[in-house]
Specification:
By secondary structure, this protein is α/β, with parallel strands linked by helices. It is about 40% helix and about 20% strand. It has a five-stranded mixed sheet, sandwiched between helices. The longest helix has 17 residues. The mean pLDDT is about 95. Bound molecules: zinc ion (2 copies). It comes from Litchfieldia salsa. GO terms for molecular function: dCMP deaminase activity; zinc ion binding. Belongs to the cytidine and deoxycytidylate deaminase family.
Length: about 190
């Protein structure tokens, strides 16, 4: 039985949160973790009660949407709202944090940032994280961890390849199809 790693579990959670984003410019999710427990989560969205970008369009000033609060900020503010300490916690984000979020993350005592995608990684943010000794690590999400039917699909493609082989498809073609399947399915043999 393959259990998913903690990193993949928390990163998957951030990607789920990103699906709740209301700003169409960028969907971001953030999960705050302490002692391997999720203590808060956030996504890119409007202030509670305000209209959503997804309904009324973005409120763009200087090429930035000013309506939304970033996912990282929302997650940290959720901790503030409910009185949950963030000191020594870690944060999993779908994208490299912007400069404003970087400063808030450091100031709230977060000790590690795991991000799935580079996103305009600001040199000053990189410098500030380093100065504050905040660990920054790229953790890409293996989307297969969210695929509940992986084994069935794996077996199905395997049987299709067997069928092609039985029907005389040439070895080179079969090998290339096999390699493609192995790329898609982490457990393909
Ligand atoms: Zn927006
Ligand atoms: Zn931000």
């Amino acid at each position: 039985m393959n259990r998913i790693s903690w990193d993949q579990y928390f990163m998957a959670q951030s990607h789920l949160l990103a699906l709740r984003s209301t700003c169409t410019r960028l969907t971001v999710g953030a999960t705050v973790v302490r002692d391997k427990r999720i203590i808060a989560g956030g996504y890119n969205g409007s202030i509670a009660g305000d209209t959503h970008c997804s309904e009324d369009g973005c409120y763009v000033v200087d090429n930035h949407c000013i309506r939304t609060i970033h996912a990282e900020m929302n997650a940290l503010l959720q901790c503030a709202k409910f009185g949950v300490p963030t000191s020594g916690a870690e944060i999993y984000v779908t994208h490299f944090p912007c400069l404003q979020c970087c400063k808030s993350i450091i100031q709230s005592g977060i000790k590690a940032v795991y991000y799935a995608q580079d996103y305009k990684n600001h040199p000053y943010a990189i410098e500030l994280f380093a100065k504050a000794s905040v660990k920054v690590e790229k953790v890409e999400l293996n989307e297969m961890v969210l695929d509940l039917n992986q084994r069935e699909k794996n077996d199905f493609v395997g049987s299709l390849l067997e069928e092609l082989k039985a029907n005389g498809v040439n070895d080179d073609k079969l090998r290339s199809l096999h390699d493609q399947a192995a790329k898609i399915f982490t457990t393909f043999e």
